Structures are given as C-alpha cells and as structure tokens.
Amino acid sequence: MCLITSASIVWWVSLPRHQRHLFDTLYHVVAIESNSLLVTADEKYWQKVKVGGHTELLRNF
Domain map of the chain by residue range? Predict the structure, then answer.
C-alpha cells in the first residue's frame, strides 16, 4: 500500500506550473513514496524533475 504524504504534495505543488503533466507528476510522487523509479519518455518533464531523483528517461533505461 502506498500513501501519499504531505511532503509529496508540497513537492508536487512546488514544481513549475507551466507544462506540468498531471499523470507523470502523480506517478512520480508514487515512485518517491514507494522508493521506486518512474521511467518516462517525456524528456521535458524529466529535465524539470531529474534533480529530485526517482526518475529516468526511457531511452537511458
């Protein structure tokens, strides 16, 4: 069972508001909470969030 904590919600809200994809962001929060990895093909999203970890580009996976 994965719980989304208030820290994850704060992180989500702090992301740049322009061109943020809701589903990628929510899946990323789940990956962080479950200590997993989100593999995404969306390079724009990855460039914005790669510093936070728990994400990798599909082409690098």
Answer: 6-60
The count of other CB atoms within 10 Å of the CB of residue 40 is: 20
How many CA atoms, within 13 angstroms, populate the side-chain half-sphere of residue 8? 17
pTM of the model: 0.65
Rounded to whole angstroms, the Cα distance separating 16 from 59 reads 24
Please report, as a single letter, which amino acid is at residue 21. Answer: H
pLDDT in tens, 2-61: 566 666 666 666 666 545 667 787 888 888 888 999 999 989 889 988 888 899 999 998
Query: Dihedral through CA 49, CA 42, CA 55, CA 51, nearest 10?
Result: -20
